[in-house]
């Protein structure tokens, strides 16, 4: 659990972070979003003390971060940055094993852990262990970055726009993988991004920052429904909010069991989002879709009225 | 990832035996010439047909070579310790304030002619080896300091941030990240410094530090070109030998 109490940071006369209070529960993924310069990255860096806070307190599991030795503190917090920051003179395997080696794990255990993580992140050991960072694509490099952050099995993960430099397709793949990883590992994650779709897709809790302050925080859906002011509303997508919300809801939540009617000709996967379902309807100009499971077997149907949220079809 | 900003380029290692072939060849040539200069008397006779003695014999070439190597070795070792150490010190947070001062001092050391350093050092330190070591040390500092600063400054700031963020101590960052990444550039600086100083060390002969400069000075004084050629030839070969050793030492061809 990470708690910030009235935390402030000044750079000279400029106030970068202005008295923010925040609580990230254990196992929660908290996304900090906002425009550039809103203080979100500074907030992140204050948690592992790469930047020291000037006022207020930051607690990890009830203990102030200042009470830890800063090196020991950072070794128990995973850290992922946009540019990966992989060491160019080290192989992938050595990069991933960095923190375990700093913690003086026995060699065999480091190797096992590195191989375990490479498998976890879809990097075949035989192919990648001895490669150097410059031989990797952006997506592969960031997988290594995430593996390195997870190496010593930290409870907390800080991610500073980790997928910001990737192309949209790779970014979406890695977001998906992070979600699956998080479902298994239940880390406490603070995730900084300026990509609202990414934040909505990943976050359990969304924190909107503006000019060093927290403007609004809560569950993504709650923010979409009740933005406190026009700034949050426009940040969340303005008129596109309906589609953004639809992107968070799975077809399975709205579908009805197969009725007596003929199957609709167009199909949609059970796990697809309502916005995708809507897109399919628009494309084929139909108002009814057959919902199928992973094996493409029809299990229900979705009508436009159901999609819009009506109780009965 | 910005590949252009990375200094280290790893290349497949050439087998050790073949890697050292070129420096070995130069070294053997140097030794052979030091030992067998007398055999080339007929050649030098062509250069200076009129003088009685065409081979420098006041001291053995081996002894002169040894003294030359020692003077350059001591001066370079001190220059490396001071230069790399100083550059590391002023790139630490505590020493950052001294960075401009140190890079200026090193530049001044380079602009100050070694002859002038010798002239000033002799009254203070007396004749002999000491003044030439001081002159070479001052003269050799700049390339080392400048390259060490450039090497450390050239490291991608994100690599630095990641290193700190992962929980490396300042010492671990220096030893495991900064120095290995800056190594090609630092070694290039040491290479320049040592090679230049091998030539400059010949000046030591003017202040009584006997080395391969002796035949050159004696040749100038007596108007004997053969002596000059002999000294210059060995100094040149020594410089080439050392330079080719450094070429092999450079862990990776630099960016």
From TrEMBL, chain A:
It holds the Pfam family ABC_tran. It comes from the Bacteria. Transmembrane segments: none annotated. Residues 2-236 form the ABC transporter domain. GO terms for molecular function: ATP binding. Keywords: ATP-binding, CBS domain, Nucleotide-binding, Transport. SMART domains: AAA (SM00382). Signal peptide: none annotated. Residues 255-313 form the CBS domain. InterPro entries: AAA+_ATPase (IPR003593), ABC_transporter-like_ATP-bd (IPR003439), ABC_transporter-like_CS (IPR017871), CBS_dom (IPR000644), CBS_dom_sf (IPR046342), P-loop_NTPase (IPR027417). Belongs to the ABC transporter superfamily. This is ABC transporter ATP-binding protein. It comes from Billgrantia antri.
From TrEMBL, chain B:
It holds the Pfam family BPD_transp_1. Coiled coil: none annotated. The keyword Transport applies. The keyword RNA-binding does not apply. It is a multi-pass membrane protein. InterPro entries: ABC_transp_perm/SBD, MetI-like, MetI-like_sf. The chain crosses the membrane at residues 20-40, 61-91, 111-139. Belongs to the binding-protein-dependent transport system permease family. This is ABC transporter permease. It comes from Billgrantia antri. The lineage of its organism: Bacteria, Pseudomonadati, Pseudomonadota, Gammaproteobacteria, Oceanospirillales.
């Amino acid at each position: 659990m990470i708690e910030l109490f009235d935390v402030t940071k000044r750079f000279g006369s400029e106030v970068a972070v202005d008295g923010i209070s925040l609580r990230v529960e254990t196992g929660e993924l908290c996304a900090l979003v906002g425009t550039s310069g809103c203080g979100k990255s500074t907030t992140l860096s204050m948690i592992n003390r790469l930047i020291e806070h000037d006022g207020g307190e930051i607690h990890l599991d009830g203990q102030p971060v200042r009470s830890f030795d800063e090196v020991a503190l950072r070794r128990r917090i995973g850290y992922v940055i946009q540019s990966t920051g992989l060491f160019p003179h080290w192989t992938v395997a050595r990069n991933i094993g960095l923190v375990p080696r700093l913690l003086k794990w026995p060699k065999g255990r480091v190797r096992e852990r590195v191989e375990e993580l490479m498998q976890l992140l879809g990097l075949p050991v035989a192919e990648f262990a001895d490669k150097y960072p410059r031989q990797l694509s952006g997506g592969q490099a960031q997988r290594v970055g995430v593996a390195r952050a997870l190496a010593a099995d930290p409870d907390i993960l800080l991610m500073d726009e980790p997928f910001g430099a990737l192309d949209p397709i790779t970014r979406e793949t890695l977001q998906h993988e992070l979600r699956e990883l998080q479902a298994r590992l239940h880390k406490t994650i603070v995730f900084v991004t300026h990509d609202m779709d990414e934040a909505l897709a990943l976050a359990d809790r969304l924190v909107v920052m503006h000019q060093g302050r927290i403007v609004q925080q809560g569950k993504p859906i709650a923010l979409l429904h009740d933005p406190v002011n026009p700034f949050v509303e426009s940040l969340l997508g303005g008129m596109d909010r309906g589609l953004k919300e639809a992107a968070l809801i799975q077809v399975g939540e709205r579908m009805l069991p197969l009725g007596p009617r003929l199957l609709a000709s167009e199909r949609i996967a059970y796990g697809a989002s309502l916005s995708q379902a809507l897109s399919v309807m628009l494309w084929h100009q139909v108002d009814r879709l057959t919902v199928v499971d992973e094996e493409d077997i029809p299990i229900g149907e979705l009508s436009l009225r159901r999609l819009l949220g009506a109780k009965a079809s | 990832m910005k590949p252009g900003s990375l200094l280290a380029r790893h290349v497949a290692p050439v087998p050790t035996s073949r890697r050292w072939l070129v420096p070995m060849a130069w070294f053997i040539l140097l030794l052979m010439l030091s030992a067998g200069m007398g055999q080339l008397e007929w050649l030098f006779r062509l250069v200076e047909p009129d003088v009685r003695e065409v081979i420098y014999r006041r001291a053995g070439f081996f002894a002169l070579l040894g003294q030359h190597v020692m003077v350059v070795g001591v001066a370079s070792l001190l220059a490396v310790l001071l230069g790399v150490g100083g550059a590391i010190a002023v790139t630490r947070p505590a020493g950052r304030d001294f960075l401009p001062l140190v890079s200026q001092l090193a530049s001044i050391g380079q602009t100050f002619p070694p002859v002038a350093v010798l002239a000033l050092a002799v009254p203070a330190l007396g004749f002999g080896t000491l003044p030439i070591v001081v002159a070479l040390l001052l003269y050799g500092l700049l390339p080392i300091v400048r390259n060490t600063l450039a090497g450390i400054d050239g490291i991608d700031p994100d690599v630095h941030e990641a290193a700190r963020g992962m929980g490396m101590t300042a010492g671990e960052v220096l030893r495991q990240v900064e120095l290995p990444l800056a190594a090609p550039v630092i070694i290039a600086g040491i290479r320049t410094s040592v090679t230049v100083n091998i030539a400059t060390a010949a000046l030591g002969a003017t202040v009584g530090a006997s080395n391969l400069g002796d035949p050159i000075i004696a040749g100038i004084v007596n108007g004997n070109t053969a002596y000059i050629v002999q000294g210059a030839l060995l100094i040149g070969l020594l410089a080439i030998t050392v330079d080719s050793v450094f070429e092999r030492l450079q862990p990776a061809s630099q960016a």
